[in-house]
Amino acid sequence: MACKDTAGRMRARCALWEATQRARCDQWRTDWTQRCDAWHTAWTQRCAAWHTESQQRCDRWEQEWTQTCSSWGPFAILCLLWAWVSTWVCRAWSWVTTTICDVWTWVSSTVCDLWTWVSNTICTLWVLVTTFVCRLWVFVVDIWCSIFCAIRRLLAPNEFSQARSECIYGWTARYRIDENSEECTLRVTLRIRLVADTGVSATDIATVTARWEPAIEAAWSNRFPLVLSDGTCRCKGYTVSVDVQFVQTGEHHVVTVHSGSGRADMGNWYVNSTGGTAAHESGHMFGNSDEYADSNCPNRTVTSDGSIVQNSQTGTVRPRHYQGFADWLSNRTCCTYSVG
Amino acid sequence: MPAQGIQFDPARLQDFELTVEVGDTFSEDGLTRVRLNGGGRLAVEQQREQERGGEFHTEVDRDSMERLLRLAAQFDWQRRFPSRPGLPDEAVVQWSLRDRQGGTATVKVWLRDAEKDHVMAPVLNVLRQGVDRATGGKYYL
Q1: Do A265 and B87 touch (CB under 8 A)?
Q2: Taking residues A65-90, what's their average pLDDT?
Q3: pTM, rounded to two decimals
Q4: In angstroms, rounded to a whole number, what is the distance separating the alpha carbons of residues A67 and A69?
Q5: Contact across the interface for B89 and A265, Cβ inside 8 Å
Q6: How sure is the predictor about B93, in pLDDT bands with cuts at 50, 70 and 90?
């Protein structure tokens, strides 16, 4: 996953985590508050019922004894005294037990409320701490991502240069590359200084320039799109255009032009060299290796899919030859682009 | 530096043969082989992969041949190859100097180095002219 997206998704996950956990805490608090309320209500009712029942029992006791005492004659006062004392004891008992019940109700409800408050506070603290840690991690990832992307961008300067090596061959791929994220285009500029060898005239140079420049540009421009494969970047795809400039100074490559025909290589072309040869050699300037068999390089990977670096006269640019451009763009944008 | 074990003797011109192979059979330009024997005969052929092109001939005068063989004997036959990384597509030149009585010396160099070498360059230029003459410009070194 692209670095930029990692931080973004983590940020979203932290927010989701926080919301989910807060909801859980709220639910927990609600549940326990309801439980405590139910407990309090149930015990209040129980205590009230007990009080009512015990009072009624005392009332009945008093009533019954009062009625009984009426048949006690001269000793009725003793009976009434008994009835009064026993009723008082009864009512005192009722009061004590009801008070105990009320105290129990209050204590247990208070404990329940306290538990609800403590557990909710712990839950809230848990959410705060874990969310903080999550956000701190996102911050670290963000910083890391910024550094990582800055380093990657250093690998994608506009004036690009990279040492290349294959078997017994070694050279430097060098060109300019400009990215336009408004138009989603990549412009590759190849500056070549032609040096005329003995026997090569200015007219020859003009002739070969007119032959080689369009051939190279046609072979290498708009061959394959560079497609976004990972990350959130503005352009979902880029088109690549190649501009060849034959210059007198500030060149990326020097090519000696020899008279007649001969064995062209990356630094030596001939007046009779075709546009295909120029396009092939330009492929090396972009960093691609040869793909034809070479008895000096028995381990070389030889291709057979009509590649321009396998056959300069009939071959065409293949997707793998654009990989250098895709890698540059990926480093520049910190998203991943691949050759479409 | 004289070829190791090979001493050029102008009195035995016919015993010497200089061969140069430029390129590779698998490259687009193919491999061009030139043989110059002490009798003055210059033979040119080209090979691409398994196919051999026709052989072309021309003659080289005695004085030129002696000069060429004398120069060839002065090549740095101990030269290490590759002396440097080559440019992509840069051709390789393989020189061989044979003495029927004394063995064969062989050395490989990059074509661009041979073109700049003060001993190899004149030999190469003469042979290029000979190839052009023999093949009518069809082949080149």
Answers
A1: yes
A2: 91
A3: 0.79
A4: 5
A5: yes
A6: very high
B63 SS3 class:
helix
pLDDT tens-place string over residues A104-115: 999 999 999 999
- Beta-carbon contacts of residue A91 (< 8 Å; ≥ 6 apart): A55, A58
- Nearest beta carbon to residue A168 from set B27, B29, B85: B85
* Closest CB to B26 among A168, A264, A294: A294
Beta strand segments in A231-339, E: 237-246, 253-258, 268-270, 336-339
Q: Number of structural domains, chain B?
A: 1
Q: Can you give the CATH number for the domain in which B53 is found?
A: 3.30.1560
CA angle A222–A333–A172, rounded 5-degree value: 65
Find the domain containing B41 and state its range.
10-135
Q: What is the ipTM of this complex?
A: 0.92
| B65, B10 Cβ separation under 8 angstroms | no
Question: What type of residue is B21?
Answer: E
Q: What is the mean pLDDT of residues A7-14?
A: 88
Q: Cα–Cα distance between A299 and A238 in angstroms, integer? A: 35
Within a 13 Å sphere around the CA of A153, how many CA atoms are in the beta-carbon half?
9
Beta strands in chain B (DSSP E): 16-23, 31-37, 41-48, 51-52, 56-59, 92-99, 103-110
Q: Closest to B112 (Cβ–Cβ): which among A170, A268, A295? A: A268
Is residue B119, in this structure, part of any structural domain at all? yes
For A130-189, the DSSP string reads: HHHHHHHHHHHHHHHHHHHHHHHHHT--SEEEEEEEETTEEEEEEEEEEEETTTTEEEEE
Which chain B residues contact residue A262 at CB under 8 A? 140
Q: Residue B34 domain-assigned?
A: yes
